[in-house]
Write a structure and sequence with these properties.
The protein has 104 residues and is an alpha+beta fold. It contains 3 helices and 4 strands. The chain is elongated, with a radius of gyration of 15 Å.
Length: 104
Amino acid sequence: MKYEIGIINTTINTLEGTELMSSTLLEQKLCACIQIDKIESKFIWSDKIQTDQEYRLQIKLLPKNIDKVTKMISTIHTYEIPEIIVTKALVNESYFDWMISVCV
C-alpha cells in the first residue's frame, strides 16, 4: 500500500461538542470519515489524577487538510488544552480514491 492519509485523534467531553466538531468538518468536506467512541480517560490535571467520560474522535482525512483541521479543532474545542494527535497511515487504493472523491 502506498496511499497516505492523515488520522487526527482528539477527545471531547460532551456529545454536543462531538456533534458540532464532526458536522463542521464533514460539511466543509475537510475529512472523509469520523469514528466516535465513548471512553473513560484518566489524566493528571492541576496536580491531581482525574477521571472523565469523554468521546474520542478519529478523523480520517487527506494529508493536505491536516493543518486546516488542526486549526479548526483548536478554534472550536472547549478544552483549554485540546488533545490533537496526528498520525499518517497507508491505505488501499480504493479507500484512497473514495477519500479523494469526498474531500476538498
